[in-house]
C-alpha cells in the first residue's frame, strides 16, 4: 500500500504529542505522500517549524498573513490541491474551534475553507480528564456528525503522569489509517476471518514442535482486508508481530486451539483465509513434567493428526468463500492444483515454500477452477492487496 501521489496537509496544534508529528511526517513521506505542514502558534512551543521543514522539504506555515504566499490567501492555496487534511496532534481547544467554525488562525481558517471533497481527519491528544469532559465529548459527537474522521485517541500512560484515554495514536497507526482511507473499499461490509502464524504443539512444559512461519503474510492480509473495508478477525498462533490496528485478534497456541477459535467465529463470515502454517501432528501424550535425559536413550514420542481447519470450514453446510495457502518446496504447480481440489476450496494460493517464511517478500501463484495465475514476486503488503482484489473479483 502506498500514498504515492497523495498530497497531505499535516496540521499540528499545541500538545506534547507534537514530538510524534516529526515521525509521522517521515512515515507519510516514506509511504510516497507529499506533506505540507501547517502549525498553530501553540504547536510551535512544542516543536520548531525548522524540524518539520527539514523533514518535509517544504516551508512550514503558521501565520495567516504569511507574505510567502503571493496572493495572501494561504487558507485557499494550501487546501485546493490537498487529498486530505490530518490534524495530529489535535488539542481539545482545536476540536472546539473546528466544531464552531472558528477562523482566527491559519490552520482553523484552512479547515473551514477546505472544499467539501477534501476529507478532514483528526488525531486527538490530550489529558484523560480533558478527553472525558462532557464538553470535549460533545465536540467529538459534533465532529463525527460533521463528517470529520476521528483517529483515536489511544489509552495509556500520559506525559502528565496520569493514565487513560487521550494519547495520540502512534505514527505507524495513523499511517495505517490514512492508507486505509485511500483504499478502494473492495470488502465493504464483508466479514473476514483469517488464520496466521505457526501453531505450537507441546511435548512437555518447556518443549514443543512448531515451524518457521512468522505470520507476516497473514497479518499483511488482515491489514489489507481491513483497509478494504472488511470487519476482520485474526486467529493467530504465536508470533512476534504487533496486533494489527482495528482488527479483532484471537491469540492461540495449538492447532486444536486454532480450530476451536475458528469454529467459534466462523458463523456469518463471508470469507475465510487460512494462511496459518498449522502443525499436521501433535504429540499424543503431553508430559506434565519436563522429560529427563535417560542414560542416552531418546524419548519415544507418539503422534496423532491435528484437525484440518480449512477442510473443516470448507465442508460446513454453508461455507464462507474459502482461500487456502500452500507452501511447497518443489513441484508447486502440480501440488497446488491437486491441493485445491483435495481441500474442496475455490481458491488456493501457492508460494515457494519455506524460503519465504519470515521474509518481507513472497512470490505467489493463484490456483482456481480456471487454472493457475502467477502474481509474481513483491513485498507481502503489496501481494496482500493484490490478493484482496483477486478475491473481490471472484466473489
Ligand atoms: O495440507 P496443507 O497443510 O499443505 O494445507 C495448507 C492449507 O491448509 C493452509 O491454508 C493452512 O492454513 C490450512 N491448514 C489448516 N489446518 C491444518 C493444516 C492446514 O487449516 N491442520
What can you see in these coordinates?
With 395 residues, the chain is α/β, with parallel strands linked by helices. It folds into 2 domains: 7-181, Flavin prenyltransferase-like (Rossmann fold), CATH 3.40.50; 191-287 and 299-394, Rossmann fold (3-Layer(aba) Sandwich), CATH 3.40.50.10300. The chain contains 13 helices and 19 strands. Strands 12-11-8-13-16-17-18-19 form an 8-stranded mixed sheet, with helices on both faces. Strands 2-1-3-4-5 form a 5-stranded parallel sheet, sandwiched between helices. Helix 1 runs parallel beside helix 2 (49-56). The longest helix is centred in the C-terminal third of the chain and has 15 residues, at 380-394. The protein binds cytidine-5'-monophosphate. The site of cytidine-5'-monophosphate has 14 residues, from helix 11 and strand 16.
Average residue pLDDT: 92
Low-confidence stretches: none
According to CATH, what is the topology of the largest domain?
Rossmann fold
Shape: elongated
Helix amount: 25-40%
Describe the biggest sheet?
8 strands, mixed
Strand and helix map with partners:
Layout: E1 7-12, H1 18-30, E2 34-39, H2 49-56, H3 74-77, E3 84-90, H4 92-100, H5 106-112, E4 120-124, H6 128-132, H7 134-145, E5 149-150, E6 154-157, E7 163-167, H8 171-182, E8 191-196, E9 201-204, E10 207-209, H9 216-227, E11 231-236, E12 248-251, H10 255-265, E13 271-274, E14 281-283, E15 303-305, H11 309-314, E16 321-327, H12 332-343, E17 347-351, E18 361-368, E19 371-379, H13 380-394
Parallel strand pairs: 1-2, 1-3, 3-4, 4-5, 8-11, 8-13, 11-12, 13-16, 16-17
Antiparallel strand pairs: 6-7, 9-10, 14-15, 17-18, 18-19
Amino acid at each position: 500500500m502506498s500514498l504515492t501521489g497523495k498530497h497531505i496537509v499535516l496540521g499540528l496544534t499545541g500538545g506534547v504529542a507534537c514530538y510524534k508529528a516529526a515521525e509521522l511526517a517521515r512515515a507519510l513521506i516514506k509511504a510516497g505522500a507529499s506533506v505540507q505542514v501547517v502549525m498553530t502558534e501553540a504547536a510551535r512551543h512544542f516543536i520548531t517549524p525548522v524540524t518539520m521543514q527539514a523533514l518535509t522539504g517544504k516551508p512550514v506555515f503558521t501565520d495567516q498573513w504569511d507574505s510567502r504566499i503571493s496572493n495572501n490567501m494561504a487558507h485557499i492555496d494550501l487546501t485546493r490541491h490537498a487529498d486530505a487534511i490530518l490534524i495530529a496532534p489535535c488539542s481539545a481547544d482545536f476540536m472546539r474551534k473546528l466544531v464552531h467554525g472558528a477562523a482566527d488562525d491559519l490552520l482553523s481558517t484552512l479547515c473551514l475553507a477546505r472544499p467539501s471533497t477534501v476529507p478532514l481527519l483528526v488525531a486527538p491528544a490530550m489529558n484523560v480528564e480533558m478527553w472525558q469532559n462532557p464538553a470535549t465529548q460533545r465536540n467529538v459527537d459534533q465532529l463525527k456528525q460533521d463528517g470529520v474522521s476521528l483517529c483515536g485517541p489511544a489509552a495509556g500512560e500520559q506525559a502528565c503522569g496520569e493514565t487513560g484515554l487521550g494519547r495520540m495514536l502512534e505514527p505507524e497507526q495513523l499511517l495505517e489509517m490514512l492508507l486505509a482511507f485511500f483504499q478502494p473499499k473492495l470488502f465493504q461490509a464483508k466479514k473476514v476471518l483469517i488464520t496466521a502464524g505457526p501453531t505450537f504443539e507441546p511435548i512437555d512444559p518447556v518443549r514443543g514442535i512448531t515451524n518457521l512461519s512468522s505470520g507476516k503474510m497473514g497479518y499483511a492480509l488482515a491489514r489489507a482486508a481491513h483497509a478494504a473495508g472488511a470487519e476482520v478477525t485474526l486467529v493467530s498462533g504465536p508470533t512476534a508481530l504487533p496486533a494489527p490496528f482495528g482488527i479483532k485478534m484471537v491469540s492461540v497456541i495449538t492447532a486444536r486451539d486454532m480450530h476451536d477459535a475458528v469454529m467459534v467465529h466462523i458463523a456469518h463470515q463471508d470469507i475465510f483465509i487460512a494462511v496459518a502454517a498449522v502443525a499436521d501432528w501433535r504429540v499424543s501424550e503431553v508430559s506434565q513434567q519436563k522429560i529427563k535425559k535417560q542414560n542416552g536413550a531418546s524419548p519415544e514420542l507418539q503422534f496423532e493428526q491435528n484437525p484440518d481447519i480449512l477442510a473443516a470450514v470448507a465442508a460446513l453446510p454453508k461455507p464462507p468463500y474459502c482461500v487456502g495457502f500452500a507452501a511447497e518446496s518443489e513441484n508447486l504447480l502440480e501440488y497446488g492444483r491437486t491441493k485445491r481440489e483435495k481441500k474442496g476450496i475455490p481458491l488456493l494460493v501457492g508460494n515457494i515454500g519455506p524460503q519465504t517464511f519470515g521474509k518481507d517478500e513472497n512470490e505467489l501463484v493463484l490456483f482456481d477452477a480456471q487454472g493457475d495465475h502467477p502474481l509474481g514476486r513483491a513485498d507481502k503488503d503489496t501481494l496482500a492487496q493484490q490478493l484482496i482484489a483477486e478475491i473481490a473479483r471472484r466473489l
